[in-house]
Amino acid sequence: MLALDEIVWVCQYCGVHNTVEIDFTISGKQDFVETCRICHMPNRVIIQTDEEENIFVDVRYIDE
Question: Cα(18)–Cα(10) distance, rounded to whole angstroms?
């Protein structure tokens, strides 16, 4: 796995695919807010990696 890599996430409001660059040198969970490039609504993006370098992406409404 590269130190920096792009992931794709789906906006919870309009369903459009977005990308964000993630720093995978940070271990554990990354939890941040990204704005959709189309509808401009904020989405909570949660990235987790396990010890086998599997990547899990969870996108939620900002108020969840």
Answer: 6
DSSP state, 3? S
Q: Ramachandran region of residue 28, left (φ > 0), alpha (ψ -120 to 50) or beta?
A: left
Of 4, 2, 20, nearest in space to 59 by CA: 20
Tokens of 63: 């108020």
**What type of residue sits at position 13?**
Y
Alpha helical stretches, state H, 1-64: none
**In this structure, which amino acid lies at residue 60?**
R
Q: In angstroms, rounded to a whole number, what is the distance separating the alpha carbons of residues 15 and 42? A: 13
pLDDT tens for 14-63 read 999 999 999 888 878 999 999 999 999 999 999 998 888 888 999 999 88
